[in-house]
Amino acid sequence: YCGMVAIVGRPNVGKSTLLNKLLGQKISITSKKPQTTRHRIMGIHTVAERQVVFIDTPGLHMEEKRAINRLMNRAAASSLAEVSLVVFVVDGMTWTEDDDLVLRKLQSRDDGRKTVLAVNKVDNIKNKEELFPYLEALSKKFPFDEILPISATKGTNVQRILDMSIESL
Ligand code: GDP
Ligand code: MG
């Protein structure tokens, strides 16, 4: 089996960090500066006979006023059509308008594929109980197949994303 998994989300939520962690090696560029990843970056993960190609997909949040943004949006959207799982990464406790833009793109291309919401940077949250009402609010935005609090830097729940990726093939 082989297939593709897309990692989507607005800039700076930790997509590249997650991709690096998923692959166990640094291949994508991470930065405090938003939009370091100007192109799709792929990585392959192999388990037994199964191979997952992860695609780091920037650009889905962009306003379509500029031609380059329209192009990046189109590249991101067309790759979504071919994936077996979407990992939608958001920042723990901070939901912005750009997140809504990404969600709308996902909704407009919802052809039954699985979508997991990865709520990242939970290592930053001191009082973990604060997370529950936030996660519950997020569960009402979209019928996510799973909502997973993660830490891409610490690796928390990253294995679960790998397992879901392999299972989705
Ligand atoms: P991208 O724009 O979505 O690809 O985001 P990056 O992976 O480049 O990460 C943006 C910033 O968030 C970097 O400074 C990362 O070190 C930081 N970051 C990413 N994941 C985590 C996490 O799980 N916890 C914390 N505390 N910071 C993170
Ligand atoms: Mg990036």
From TrEMBL:
Which lineage? Bacteria, Pseudomonadati, Pseudomonadota, Gammaproteobacteria, Alteromonadales
| Chain residue ranges for the region called G2 | 35-39
Task: Tell me yes or no: is Oxidoreductase among this UniProt entry's keywords.
Answer: no
Q: Which residues of the full protein are shown?
A: 40 to 208 of 335
Region G4: start-end pairs: 120-123
Q: Does the keyword Cell inner membrane apply?
A: yes
Q: What does this protein do?
A: An essential GTPase that binds both GDP and GTP, with rapid nucleotide exchange. Plays a role in 16S rRNA processing and 30S ribosomal subunit biogenesis and possibly also in cell cycle regulation and energy metabolism.
Q: Where does GTP bind?
A: 9-16, 56-60, 120-123
Region of interest called G1, as start-end residue ranges on this chain: 9-16
Q: Which UniProt keywords apply?
A: Cell inner membrane, Cell membrane, Cytoplasm, GTP-binding, Membrane, Nucleotide-binding, Ribosome biogenesis, RNA-binding, rRNA-binding
Query: Which stretches does the entry tag as region G5?
Result: 150-152
Query: What protein is this chain from?
Result: GTPase Era
What are its GO biological-process terms?
A: ribosomal small subunit assembly
Q: Which organism is it from?
A: Shewanella violacea (strain JCM 10179 / CIP 106290 / LMG 19151 / DSS12)
Any one GO MF annotation of this record: ribosomal small subunit binding
Where do the Era-type G domain residues begin and end?
A: 1-169
Q: Which domain of life is it from?
A: Bacteria
Q: Which family does it belong to?
A: Belongs to the TRAFAC class TrmE-Era-EngA-EngB-Septin-like GTPase superfamily. Era GTPase family.
How this chain assembles, per its entry, is:
Monomer.
Q: Where is this region: G3?
A: 56-59
